[in-house]
Amino acid sequence: TPTPTLVTQPTPLPPAVSIQPPPSSITLTVWTNPEISAFGDAPGNQLLREQITAFDADHPAVNVSISQKALTGQGSLLSYLRTARAVAPTILPDLVLLPTNQLGSAAADQLIYPLDNLLDPGLVADLYPAADQLGRVNGLLLGYPLALRGLSHLAYNPQAIAGPPPLTWAEFAPQDSRLILPASGPEGARLALQFYLALNGTLTDAANQPSLRADILAQALTLLSDGRSSGLILLDSSNVATIAEAWQLFQNGQASTTLVTAAAYLAQSGQGIASNFSPIPGADGALRPLVDGWVWAVATSDPARQRVAADLITWLVDEARNGDWSWQSHTLPARRSAFNRWPPGAADTAGGTYIIFLQQELERAQPFPAQASSGMMTALSDAVFDVISLQSAPQTAADAAAAAVNN
User: Are strands 276-278 and 152-156 parallel, antiparallel or unpaired?
Assistant: First the structure.
């Protein structure tokens, strides 16, 4: 009897299961710079790194990758943005932290994109006027300010001076206040620029080229010359290049008044001699402070990535986070509400409340003008040095500065 052939039926396959792909994830590339960094052990750097890490943890579909780029030179942040767009677009960042004086160049080269429709209008409304202007190019919000810097004022020894200095230079110059200025460095140039702008000086000519008006600059330099000839401005000012050097002479008791920035005052408060603060006197009243700073700018053209980049901006400039970070890093917040996080009584003296003073100064501050190029500031610095060191009369120094700048 033939053996039967066994035929094995194939095992039926299970029905196909529709597998949903995992949520799409985005690696958000962020470029910072050595001045405002998430690297290193400085308190502000550590806190910024922690805040970005917290955003990462709060957004599971986002992975933030941070790099640091130089601000100048062939390998600078802007240089990378320009060259990578053509040869290696995949390495381009989504979000960059720029100094405000580079925002115009980035906008002109179309390296960054408007934020007007990406951020809550309330964030913009909370900005100080100068901060809002610093973030705009041709009316478009192209950078959201993270912090402001450069605000200068006077510090004085209340044990040597009975009350705050007068608010006009004509009243201030004859006083025996022994003022030390960093007259051989960039801060001297910024002071001259403040006087010049307050006297309605212009920085460009009819063709929109860099230009200084020698007649108005001579008036500004005459104010400094009057302070020097009256004995208010100390001779040592000619040898002082930085705010830190001026503060050291002030702390040693060699001067009773000094020019200082808010960042330096916050860093030095409580160390050495007691000090109080006041605005800088001008020709017709207190000079308006000049400020610049750093802004977050979106560098990706992809709408989805732009939204995530805007989410990170919103996270970092949150009132609490920005307030805590600005206090630790000795920078000034660009948002009014961020001051709510500063410790009550921070840097106060018996004669005033420093936070209130800073808030008042920021309300009337003006953005450092983009037209004030490095060449112009060098010319102003030379003019201030020549006047304070008695090498040139104000008009002579003003003519030299104008000749160096004007085309």
Answer: antiparallel
How far, in Å, CA of 232 to CA of 177, rounded?
6
Tokens representing residue 252 in the block: 């040693």
Buried-exposed string 392-407: b where 16+ CB fall within 10 A, e elsewhere: bebbbbbbbbbeebee
Cβ pair 151, 259 in contact under 8 A: no
Q: Which two tokens stand for residue 54?
A: 């917290």
Question: How confident is the model over 17-50, as pLDDT tens digits?
Answer: 333 334 568 999 999 999 998 998 888 999 999 9
Weakest mean pLDDT among 142-151, 170-179, 349-358: 349-358
**272 pLDDT band (50/70/90 cuts)?**
low
CA angle (227, 233, 236) in 5-degree steps? 150
Range in 84-88, 257-261, 357-361 the model is least confident about: 84-88
Question: Structure tokens of 334?
Answer: 């660009």
Q: How far apart are CA 20 and CA 10, in angstroms?
A: 29
Distance of alpha carbon 295 from alpha carbon 98, whole angstroms: 5
Model confidence pLDDT, tens digit, residues 192-217: 999 999 999 999 999 999 999 999 99
Question: Rounded distance, CA 232 to CA 224, Å?
Answer: 9
Q: Read off the tokens for 113.
A: 């994109």
Nearest Cα to 35, choosing from 149, 173, 164?
Answer: 149
Contact 149, 292 (CB under 8 A): yes
Average pLDDT, whole number, for the chain? 91
Mean pLDDT for the stretch of residues 299-312: 96
- Residue 382: helix, strand or coil by DSSP? helix
Q: Give the pairing type, strands 136-137 and 179-180.
A: unpaired
Q: Is 114 helix (H, G, I), strand (E, B) or coil?
A: coil
